[in-house]
Design goal:
Protein name: DUF5050 domain-containing protein
Organism: Brevibacillus antibioticus
Structural class: mainly beta
Number of helices: 2
CATH architecture: 7 Propeller
Keywords: Signal
Distance between the termini: 40 Å
Shape: globular
Helix content: under 10%
Strand content: over 45%
Length: 403
Amino acid sequence: MRKQQFLCMTLISILLSSCSSVQQETLEAKPEVHTTKKVIKDEKIDKPQKDATLISNFDEVAPQIQSNSNVVLPLTIKKYDIERKTLEDELIAPEYVTHNIIAFQSYVSKEDASRASIGLIDRKTKKYTKIRQASDEKFMNSLTGYKNKLYWVEFDKSEKDENHWTIWEYNLSNKKTNKMKSGVSRKKTDPPILSMAQGKLCWLEYEVVGERTISKIISFDIEKNRESIISTEELDESDERDGIYFSSIKAVKEGYIVDVSIFDKRAKTKSYRISFYPINGKEPIHIIDRDRVIDFTVDGDWFVWTEEGSVFVASLKEGKVKYKFDSASSTLTNDTPIIKDNYLFYRYAVNQIFVVDLSTGKRKPITDNITMTSKLFRSDSAISFGVDDSENSPKTISMYVIE
């Protein structure tokens, strides 16, 4: 119990100090490229221990029964209907939103070729502009943005041992595209998947040295034009797997949340952990040991994670789960949890968006159970998603912006 209380107080202290440092950070730094090899080593363990994590009561919480509660949402939801023939695609996910535009990726598959592209919709005129067309040999992923800039990754379609990738930057003001960084993923490790929060763009990179795979948390400060290595871990695959591997990462206001796989060849085990790496460079806080986590987020005192059939909402200050929401199906997924103004939004299956008032635990759907609903996306000040209701709206695709 004392260990858990210490972790709770440590994390709250980190969250409060990091929020303060973000607000006071100067924006007048010179735009020089700088790489800081600052490494925060995760604690080395033979296998995860229950008393080493912040939250462990997730199996003791009864699910909330409110599923269609009268939740009053003090936010506006704006709908944008776009003609299908304009976009040439079945479902468009509005991945980055400003006051003026909605940016999205599209993927058109034809018999002779399939191509990925990036387009913009003017929020006032609904005019569509294609700003980037990938070659036939390239995929795109993780379009995101900050202020007047867009970022995305292009990588090889081929499933060879080496996959060449590039992170691109597009300036919405001068309409120029710049190559930000290039690299190679080896031994079938993933290319970067970008995540953005508070002007910090982050992703994972993997370096293969012999039989060892080194996972790296990379952060790029857009205002300072500076790249930093936040943490590294190593997985030895020379015999049986032994070590730590970063599987996925999400940027949040206070730092970085990482899904970690832990291999122990002596115990012949593989375990999973969600860890929080604070933006101020302090030691990581291990939040939960859990092997069925699909998605997660942190916002202030709240930590949310999703699984098949359930959504968990925990208080970091108290170190315990406050709410649990069970889905209609125990096998369908919940994903992309996003918190805005003390309201939690998430997607159930690929059909419906729910909102939860975190002050009361009340929940309700904000969309019908529709044929296809995109993931939720967070921009500087908005949440967005797309809906394809081809049965009732055969000529249009809808985009929604919550502000």
